[in-house]
Amino acid sequence: MKKSIYIVLGGLLTLGFVGCEPEFDTPVTDEGFYTSGDADLSNYVAVGNSLTAGFADGALYITGQENSYPNIMAQQFALAGGSETFTQPLMSDNLGGLLLNGTQVAQNRFVLAADPTTGEPTGPIILEGTPTTEVTTSATGPFNNMGVPGAKSFHLVTPGYSALNPYYGRFATGASATVIADAASLSPSFFSLWIGNNDILSYATGGGAGTDQTGNLDPSTYMSNDITDPNVFAAAYSEQVAALTASASGGVLVNIPDVTSIPYFTTVPVQSIPLDAATAGAVNAQFAQYNTVILPTLVSFGVISQEEADARVINFSAGVNFPIMTDDDLTDVSGILQGPPANLPADLANLLGQLRQANNDDLVVLTASSVLGTLANPSDPNSVIGVAVPLGDQFVLTAVEQGRVATATAAYNATIHGLASANGLGFVDARAALAQVANGGIAFDGGLLSDAFVTGGAFSLDGVHPTPRGYAYTANLIINEINQTYNASIPNVNIGNYGTITLANNVSN
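Above: the chain's sequence. Below: its structure in token form.
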């Protein structure tokens, strides 16, 4: 069973490797050809989260930071009269891990492992080595790139956030400082603001294993995987825009993409369990009493509806099947099944408590690829996850959970667009742009940028954050908006000149 699962999923990682080849670059070097228009680009400050910082491959590291979209933009700004200096709180190496008093507290980045004989990619691995970035050693600022990995919208206005986030702790101006106050203290002449992704992303990447806090206006009570209340988001975001516009000639606000546009949620097929007819029949026999006795009984007692019972029926067939899974939005019947009339053993009752089979409306997250088809109990060959043991709820973003994410995202984006309009700021619809990348891709000189994991070129090996090429595409989107809104003529970059993923068993750059 495990081998068969890898046949289905493994094909995703053997389609090849997108390299970093220069593409027909013809730079214009005539001085004075480019202009900043109505924008003052002499002191550009970028505010945001990991996307702004240049996070990629599951970590923050020097090469990623050097290819952050703000740094790429700043290089183009310099061609149009902007400052030639853009500072970032660079890490100490290209490993990406973090040390706290010498103990590693954040893992190194991913690279794509290669078969030592054939050179074919075999899957992402964590890069070997001991990182040298010590959290307690402050980075000397000030910094134009104020991107803080892990930050949610309200974190940027939370005093003392540096104690909770080691990335911000490295360059915060003081123990009680806020990210937005530190950014505003730089008196930016122009700014970009891209924040809010993490307000829904951690809920989504955790398979909905959090709480939708809509209606709760106290973010201090939120857990890390919760969805931020839209009013909390709006208040924090409004404060940030007000602080940044106080000194700036202008700026650009960027909205929040749909989670369905990133490979973390679209790479692992929801149908991923290959069974032959004999095995499918044997498994169905195991669930026969559940389907024909237990579910109807629960309906007759009014514990669940007929609609829920229909959704919970388990049925396997010859071919590739949907896995069984736990869904925490279903009625938990485990306690009832332990009593009359079922009187099931506790372990069986718990297994059936919120059990159903996945369907085409579900999104299986990228990390499930290492779990599906493996044995929950190595000594029990029948304990196959997805067949006899349900895939955990944290590995599946259900349609109900997707709805919560979509509702919150729409509310955040309405706030962002409204504030851009009210303040005469540029607005970049990253939601629409990444949907384009996910649906057919974006053509560039000599290639196509898509959301395909490993091969598409847009996303790094964590399935969430862009590659340098993806960040270059983002930079162009923002530059185009600046040109339109501020009558500027800042040149785009050729995204084909930027790299994608690193194929190596052990590299240091």
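Confidence is low (pLDDT under 50) at residues 1-30.
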